[in-house]
Task: inverse folding
């Protein structure tokens, strides 16, 4: 899975990131993030942009702040 991204790191990301990148912020693996997305359990909204799944970095920051910066 690799090292989870810190809140400070997430704040430097571009406005939209892939679901795989978002998984790092959420402290989970890519496969788990896709499974959570497909079951409607991912804690942040997912957008489909040009056929690809994207997550707004602002939504990740809000989630991590509300979660007490769990991966900070």
Result:
């Amino acid at each position: 899975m690799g090292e989870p991204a810190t809140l400070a790191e997430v704040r430097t990301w571009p406005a939209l990131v892939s679901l795989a990148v978002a998984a790092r912020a959420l402290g989970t693996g890519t496969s788990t993030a896709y499974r959570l997305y497909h079951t409607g359990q991912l804690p942040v909204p997912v957008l489909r942009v040009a056929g690809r799944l994207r997550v707004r970095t602002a939504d990740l920051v809000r989630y991590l702040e509300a979660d007490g910066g769990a991966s900070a």
Summary: The mean pLDDT is 92. The two ends are 17 Å apart (CA to CA). Strands lie at 16-18, 47-49, 52-56.
